[in-house]
Write a structure and sequence with these properties.
Strand content: 5-15%
Number of strands: 5
Distance between the termini: 40 Å
Oligomer: single chain
Shape: globular
Largest sheet: 3 strands, parallel
Radius of gyration: 18 Å
Order of helices and strands: EHHEEHHEHEH
Length: 177
Amino acid sequence: MPWISYPRVDALFDVHTNDCVEDAPVEEAEWKAKAFPGYNDIPLYCSTPCRLHLSPSTELFSFDDIRQEFPRAFVENSVPYMIARAAWEQRKFGNIGRVGFWGCHMTGRAAVESDRASVLYWIGLLEGMGVEIYEAPGSPLFMSDWEAGRYGVNGRRRNVDPSRMERATYQENLSVH
C-alpha cells in the first residue's frame, strides 16, 4: 500500500488503464492523494500514457517496451511487471545486482493458476541474467507443492495453511508421515 511509509522505495508501479479505474474515480483520487506526496522524487512507471498524470515523476514503461526486449512478455499482474522492469534495466544498463521479494506469496487458487507462473518465469529470467534473488525468510514463493519438498518422494501434496504462510524444512516434511 503506497500510503504507508517504507524505509526504502526505489520505484513505484501502476499497470492499470483508465478503463480499469474509471468506475471508481473517488477511490482513485483518494489513493493518489495518499500514495504520492511522500514519493514525488521516486520514479513511477506506468504501462499506459493515460496514467502519466499520477505523479510528477511518472515515466512510461509500456508492455511494448517489455516485448521489444523479451518477446515472451508473460505478465499476468503487477508483480511480474515490476520484475520485467528490473530485467529490462539489467539488459539495457547492467545495473541490477539484487532483487528482493517481501509479501509476494503467490498462493491461493488464482495465484497458483497463472500469476505465480508469471512471477516465477520473470524471476528465472533475472536469475539467468546474473541477478541475485533474495527471498524474505518464511516466504512461500518458492515453496514446493509436495510435502517432501520435491516431486517423486512420497506423492503427497502439501496443504498450505495461509495463516502460517511459511514452509517447513525438507527434514520436517519427511518426518510428518
